Amino acid sequence: MSDTPQFPTPESDPYQPPATQPLPAPQGQPYEATAPLAPKKKMSRGKKVGLWTGGILAAFIAIGATGNDNPAPTPVADTVATTTSSAPTTSSAPTVDPSVQASIDAAARKKADAEAKAAADAAAKKKAEEEAAAKAAAAEAAMTMSQKQAIAKAESYLEYTAFSRKGLIEQLQFEQFSKADATFAVDHITVNWNEQAAKKAKAYLDMSAFSRGGLIDQLEFEGFTTSQAKYGVKAAGL
């Protein structure tokens, strides 16, 4: 007989583990049998290498994506230039010499005074014109028909020839206006008698030759005053 112990082979091993017996349930509660845990399988070497490789690739991809999201850094020189250009510039007001400023102020006051005077003169002129127009309207309203006709006749005579004041009154009387109406008409029209004397003197010189003294006498005969006659003769060139 050999001294080596003999063990039965797995196929012929008659040993069988005893069946798991359920533990007795606590009092008042039924007992539920639990299934035995399955043994944990070991991971092969190839799978481990694959997982490590995939993790490293995922990390590189994440780092690359994060880097692309960050904006490019702004150069320091550009930042400084932008800050400098956007900073407000302050300039001090120029200093004006006191004498120059005094001259400027004086000129401004003089201009303001002139404008005020011009405005006052214009207002006074307008007021005078309005008063004169109102006075003329009132006078015309008070005129008689004969006076109005005498005025119209006097104005028509002055349109084609020159008259002295006296000569125009006499002409209206010749037209059978009363002396009062003729005088009223001549005094209510605007006439420059010096200009009338000058026009009359030129008209005489166009018709005939006169000496200076002779023309003055002729104008006085027409009813002009001596001063008016001399003015007319001088204006005519004598």
From TrEMBL:
Residues 1-46, 67-98 are annotated as: Disordered. Gene3D superfamilies: Winged helix-like DNA-binding domain superfamily/Winged helix DNA-binding domain. Residues 111-140 form a coiled coil. It comes from the Bacteria. Pfam families: Lipoprotein_Ltp. Keywords: Coiled coil. Residues 75-98 have a biased composition (Low complexity). Residues 147-189, 192-234 form the Putative host cell surface-exposed lipoprotein Ltp-like HTH region domain. Residues 15-27 have a biased composition (Pro residues). This is Putative host cell surface-exposed lipoprotein Ltp-like HTH region domain-containing protein. It comes from Intrasporangium oryzae NRRL B-24470.
